[in-house]
Design a protein that fits this description.
Radius of gyration: 16 Å
Largest sheet: 4 strands, parallel
Strand content: 15-25%
Number of helices: 4
Helix content: 40-55%
Strand order of the largest sheet: 5-4-3-6
Length: 129
């Protein structure tokens, strides 16, 4: 008999197997990386589908760059490096998933919106305090 937990309402069924959707919001901090690695070590399941999500405010980058073209180049480089790192981690852990990024006025709201849209079973994120 399956036990039902209130936080595990949504599942993706692929080929008849139950799959958890795990949302891991990240930024460029080591706190995010540690949270991701904690998930790999302590919570990962073979059938998990992991969505690594970077919601950023453009102002986060613009404080460092005055010229528009160098700002966009910087954003593109940072996003590519972040995406490459987490895609590498997913492949090494033999997990299915994707990296998603978006500009957001309020990253917290974006995380919740994406969790609902993706039907996330749970969210794993780091803390700075």
């Amino acid at each position: 008999m399956d036990r039902c937990f209130p936080f595990r309402k949504y599942f993706i069924r692929i080929n008849g197997s139950e799959r958890r959707v795990v949302l891991i919001p990240v930024d460029i901090s080591e706190h995010s990386e540690r949270a991701f690695l904690w998930y790999i070590k302590h919570s990962k399941k073979r059938n998990d589908y992991v969505v690594v999500y970077f919601a950023y405010e453009e102002e986060f980058f613009s404080s460092k760059y005055q010229e528009t073209h160098s700002l966009q180049d910087h954003i593109d480089r940072e996003l590519e490096a972040l995406q490459n790192k987490y895609v590498f981690y997913l492949k090494n852990a033999k997990l299915n998933g994707q990296f998603v990024s978006s500009v957001s006025k309020n990253p917290g709201d974006s995380i919740i919106d994406l969790s609902v849209k993706m039907g996330a079973d749970y969210i794993v994120m780091g803390s700075r305090g």
